Amino acid sequence: MLLKIEKETMSRYNAKATEAKWQKIWTDAKIFKTDSTSTKPKYYVLEMFPYPSGRIHMGHVRNYTLGDVVARFRRANGYEVLHPMGWDAFGMPAENAAMERKVHPADWTYDNIANMRDQLKQVGLAIDWDREFATCDADYYGKEQQIFIDFYNAGLIYRKESWVNWDPVDNTVLANEQVIDGRGWRSGAVVERRKLSQWFLKITDFAEELLEGLGTLDRWPDKVRLMQENWIGRSEGLKFTFEISETGESLPVYTTRPDTLFGASFCAIAADHPLAAKLAEDNADLKAFIEDCRKTGTTEEAIEKAEKKGFDTGLTVKHPCDPDWKLPIYVANFVLMDYGTGAIFACPAGDQRDLDFARKYDLPVLPVVLPEGEDPASYTIGDEAYTGPGKMFNSRFLDGMETMAAKAEMIDRAEKEGWGERTINYRLRDWGVSRQRYWGTPIPFVHCDDCGVVPVPAEELPVKLPEDVSFDRPGNPLEHHPTWKHTKCPTCGGKAVRETDTMDTFVDSSWYFLRFVTPESDQPFDGDVVDQWLPVNQYIGGVEHAILHLLYARFFTRALNHVGRTQVKEPFEGLFTQGMVNHVTYKDAEGQWVFPEMVRSREDGSFFRSDNGLDVTEGRIEKMSKSKKNVVDPDDIIDQYGADTARWFVLSDSPPERDLLWTEAGIEGAWRFTQRVFRMVDAPSAAVAAVGAAVPESLSDSALALRKATHKTIVDITADIEALHFNKAVARLYEYANAIGAKVEGDGAAEVMREALETLVMLVSPMMPHLAEELWQKLGHKTLVAETPWPKAIVALTVDNTVKMAVQVNGKVRDTIEVAKDMPKDEVEKIALASEKVDRSLDGLTVRKVIVVPGRIVNIVAN
RNA sequence: GCCCCUGUGGCGGAACUGGUAGACGCGCCGGAUUCAAAAUCCGGUUCUUUCGGGAGUGUCGGUUCGAGUCCGACCGGGGGCACCA
Predict the structure, then answer these.
(1) pLDDT in tens, A731-740
(2) Is it the case that residue A306 has pLDDT exceeding 60?
(3) Are residues A166 and A192 in the same domain?
(4) What Å value separates CA A732 and C1' B28?
(5) Which nucleotide C1' is nearest A659 CA?
(6) How far does the CA of A211 sit from the C1' of B80, in Å?
(7) Residue A1 falls within a domain, yes or no?
(8) A346 and A483 in one domain?
(9) Alpha helices per DSSP H over A12-89
(10) What does A146-209 look like in DSSP terms, one character per residue?
(11) A181: domain range?
């Protein structure tokens, strides 16, 4: 009995103690410290840095494990790897905590960082922690202010009065993208519209470059490139000017469908259009209509959306091709001031919105594009506009032309006759970065009555946030602070007031990957060193950042290039977007969400709560979220199974770009494998360590089979990791473990087994680094796995000289044959036809044709 | 409404450029070990069958000697969006 217990403990792998041990050894030896000036080939792997919310979640574990496998794999393959970590530390939750719990945002943030750093370190990541910083460090945001002033001096920053989305709860301005269904994306408050003076970054100057650059990003997911392309929204069309018949004033419009100009039926302007505002001055009804449009916001839900509304101004414009043709001007709720010129001409036959509008207000609908196969005499438009291609008709000089040709012709004519021009238009708008908040980078400017807006001189940076702030009343604490904003004008020395806006936190994350390269630089970064390390070779993060963060970071890099700080143009060479981590949801009999750890199962398969015994039912599988309580805490998992098992599980089963389903059974399976690998290597380790590394020439069949498996596995795993197909790598390692478990005996068995076990340890090491170190040591090595080169396959052992081929009769597999790899087709055919099973299937049929695809298949066609 | 992606056993998923569908794992079933259990090990596991086979990758059709893979239409699931002129 005693003996048995002892055996049990000895053969069990104690993950917790072992992991702590190796983490300390790695840290003490500083083996993950990156030498920026190394002559080795460089590899920069980066995961999107976390927001310090307080605790890590499984999504973090997945994200950082993916990156860590890449980092360790590249290190083993001879690269100098840069794999840093930092904190996206500014943002509203810290201010919310300050308001709710009377804790200073800085204290809250740095406490959270300390917690999460400890948690992340337990995952065993190969990170150079010496480069760590938080964006809320004055050192970091001071450098950001420097960049901001650079951009200002380069004309990339301007201020303008503009309509903004005002969140009345957070007392802040929201970007359009941050307004979801008319509500603030964080507070959920119904958004109002206000006019404020705002700071803007001229991202639109780079619209064309950013669009073109997408073409070079061949290691980005197509999906993300497409989303950015749509976001930039380049279109080519005609910009021309209507003359208002009654006043002679001009009204510029933009259209992508100049071909349909003869189908025009009315003209519509946005509610925010200056002309609308002017007309509303002495028209109460119009004023009310405009107010109404504003209330609905720019992105309202479907039902509200569907309702096209307009207001007839009573004015008309002259058709540019026919001064006698007058079109009424409407103010319409579906025309956007931000896009094009804020005014359109409408051709109801060719645009669904225009058609809906025309039907509602009983305006003419004249078809001008004839779809193929339709008769011009009888063709009419019902409730559906025709937006496809076709031949022009009812269109005077365009009649008979194809749509594309008609477009070009109309633009050419407009340019020749001088009433319009070919114009490229973008949907992309400039980036408003002003936030009326405390916990962000102060915009480094002062307002002087005499000198206007003046940048803070470089030697006075950083403009630090004051520490003594109060969150007792709503609004921006910087505005309320008794002294902070009062300063002297850098130009004239007179009284001046600091800008109290802080920057959008997307600014912070737009250049952190550059700071990581030279975090000690007194400049934002050392351009020469950055140019050697960038672009980031592999960037990994959530697809939710597909547009904003990634587009802003691309813009920032180009802007930094523009101001001469770097040669780099595209920051991220390879992008990988991981899927979410999901879990089933549980609800008890009272309808309350239940944490998975509180769910117990009965023998009949039903569930109950461990605390109060209430019945529990399994619900949908959803993204892990605190609100639905379908979360598992990485700390608990690591405590129970160890980091390696957790890492192994998040890498297995699902392809990393897809959602991962977290299950108890899955983590148990991973844990079993961890134990199995440990036993497989541990049990024979002493004997194996004594065996020489040299494998003899002559091997028994079973030894040769294992050796071949070893070298094939090296090739496969290497390819899988390079392609980030970690789930496949995991599957192959299971297979390889099975192969090692098979009986090996005879000549060379011991040597081949040693090679196999060492290879297994190495191949597993990027995924389960602690276990690998422990086993490596047990196999008699004094060096670290983390500093051991990746195994090299002997190519000769990875090719077989025979091959199994399927033999089909009329496309159905009847038999398999094993033939020499280079056997001529006619011999293969002979062997296939000699098969008894094939012969049986051919009974009564005549062979018409035999197709032999060498190394793959034989198909016998018969009837 | 528009755009994109996706659909394979009970489940997660394999299947290179069209060439043996279901690798590997989970679950389940059986066996070994154990007083018993846990753990571990071995075997089986798409469905169906008269044990010869037959059917099968969302549905229907097409191309091909051969289709999960290519083409067309439809159905389901997921994601994105901006009423973008």
Answers:
(1) 999 999 988 8
(2) no
(3) yes
(4) 23
(5) B12
(6) 18
(7) no
(8) no
(9) 15-29, 58-76
(10) HHHHHHHHTT-EEEEEEEEEEETTTTEEE-GGGEETTEETTT-PBPEEEEEEEEEE-GGGGHHH
(11) 157-205+430-505
Strand B-contacting residues in A 146-175, CB cut-off 7 angstroms: none
CB of A856 within 7 Å of some strand B atom: yes
Do the Cβ atoms of A546 and A217 come closer than 8 Å? no
* pLDDT digits 0-9 by tens, A204-239: 999 999 998 988 888 898 888 888 988 888 888 888
> Are residues A374 and A492 both part of a single domain?
no
Which pLDDT does position A4 carry in this prediction?
34
For residue A7, name the pLDDT band (cuts at 50, 70, 90).
very low
Distance A664 CA to B29 C1' (A): 21
Q: Please identify which residue in the block is written with the tokens 């340890």.
A: A761
The span from the CA of A637 to the CA of A57, in Å, is 11
A280-CA/B80-C1' distance, Å: 37
Q: Is the domain of A475 the same as that of A371?
A: no
- Assess if residue A357 is contained within a domain: yes
Do A174 and A254 belong to one domain? no
A353: CB within 7 A of chain B nucleic strand? yes
End-of-domain residue from the set A470, A505, A540: A505
Q: Does A644 fall in a domain? A: no
Position A284 scores a pLDDT of: 87
* Confidence at residue A185, expressed as pLDDT on a 0 to 100 scale: 63
> How many domains does chain A divide into?
3
Q: Which of residues 769-828 of A touch strand B (CB under 7 A)?
A: 804-806, 808, 810-813, 816
Asked whether strand B has any atom less than 7 Å from the CB of A228, the reply is no
Q: What's residue A89's pLDDT?
A: 93
Burial of A833 (0-12, 13-18, 19+ CB in 10 A): middle
CA of A327 to C1' of B83 (A): 21
Examine the domain organization and report whether A353 and A276 are in the same domain: yes
Q: What is the mean pLDDT of chain A?
A: 86
Q: Give the separation between CA A201 and CA A158, rounded to whole angstroms.
A: 7
Is residue A583 a contact partner of residue A622, using CB atoms and an 8 Å limit? yes
Can you give the distance from the CA of residue A122 to the C1' of nucleotide B7 in angstroms?
A: 39
Q: What pLDDT is attached to residue A175? A: 57
Q: Which of A482, A505, A528 marks a domain boundary?
A: A505
Output the CA torsion A349→A352→A356→A362 (10° steps): -10
A313 Cβ nearer than 7 Å to chain B strand: no
A187 in a structural domain? yes
Nucleotides of B under 7 A from a protein CB: 1, 3-5, 11-16, 19-21, 23-27, 39-42, 52-55, 65-67, 79-85
Compute the average pLDDT of residues A132-160. 94
Rounded CA-CA distance A726/A719 in Å is 10
Is the shortest CB-to-strand distance from A340 to strand B under 7 Å?
A: yes
What CATH number corresponds to the domain at position A375? 3.90.740.10
Under a CB-based contact definition with an 8 Å cutoff, are residues A840 and A862 in contact?
Answer: no
Query: CA A475, CA A481: separation in Å to the nearest integer?
Result: 11
Question: Which of A34-38, A337-341, A783-787 is least confident?
Answer: A337-341
Q: How far is CA A306 from CA A282, A300, A357, A422, in A?
A: 29, 10, 10, 31
What are φ and ψ of residue A425, in 5° steps? Answer: -125, 145
User: Residue A9 has what pLDDT?
Assistant: 40
Helix or strand (DSSP H, E) at A406: helix A403-417
Question: Is the previous residue joined to A462 through a cis bond, with omega within 30 degrees of 0?
Answer: yes
Residues A442, A418 share a domain: no
- Name the protein residue, with chain letter, whose CA is nearest the C1' of B27: A665
- Arithmetic mean of pLDDT, A136-141: 95
Query: Is any atom of nucleic acid chain B found less than 7 Å from the CB of residue A523?
Result: no
Per-residue pLDDT of A430-477, as tens digits, reads 888 888 889 999 999 999 988 989 999 999 989 999 998 888 776 788
Q: Does the pLDDT of residue A303 top 60, yes or no?
A: no
- DSSP tag of A462: -
Residues A383 and A461 grouped into a single domain: no
